[in-house]
Amino acid sequence: MxxxxxxxxxxxxxxxxxxxxxxxxxxxxxxxxxxxxxxxxDFKIDVAKEQALLTSHDRIILQFPFYWYSTPSLLKEWFDAxxxxxxxxxxxxxxxxxxxxxxxxxxxxxxxxxxHTGYNRFTMxxxxxxxxxxxxxxxxxxxxxxxxxxxxxxxxxxxxxNTAAYVKYVTLQSVTV
Length: 177
Ligand SMILES: Cc1cc2nc3c(=O)[nH]c(=O)nc-3n(C[C@H](O)[C@H](O)[C@H](O)COP(=O)(O)O)c2cc1C
Prior knowledge:
By secondary structure, the chain is an alpha/beta fold. The protein has a single domain (3-171), classed as Flavodoxin domain (Rossmann fold), CATH 3.40.50. The chain is 36% helix and 16% strand. It contains seven helices and six strands. Strands 1, 2, 3, 4, 5 and 6 form a six-stranded parallel β-sheet that branches. Helix 4 (73-82) links the parallel strand 3 and strand 4 (100-106). The radius of gyration is 16 Å and the shape is globular. The chain starts with a strand and ends in a 6-residue tail after the last helix. Flavin mononucleotide binds next to helix 1.
């Protein structure tokens, strides 16, 4: 199985979490790491190149820091441009079908804030529904999201453990929701 990890972080050099995750999976066999902000700083996405990358992999992981309860804007642009009618959905749009789709997200807000009783009022599962709905439309199999909340309070040791768990998430057989 070939896995494509699409990393969307506008400032990966100053990142702690996503950088740790990315560097750990970069060295794995059968894993391709693709950084959107590095490839497209001008937001002009090469749709044919992205579609070819997707076609040549079986599992796609979208890795990003949570920005305004959603993805960084370049990943939204990527959805709009790459998952096109007749390719990812609609008539003849079956190119993503039967691939696996995973999501890896880091958040500042602690886990308890992403509860109905917490200050964010919604759970991560609820907030990630647009991606799950996209998954449903394009016919991929949705993997249980890999989430790290409360990044400010994650120690170096906890991050090392979490990063090891992320490598397993990216490389091992998935558990789906
Ligand atoms: C523009 C912007 C928007 C953000 N929005 C959220 C948010 O909605 N919820 C949240 O928990 N954290 C939010 N954050 C915090 C980031 O998710 C957090 O800094 C990031 O996950 C840390 O990962 P990193 O070390 O890889 O940069 C936001 C940060 C920025 C810069």
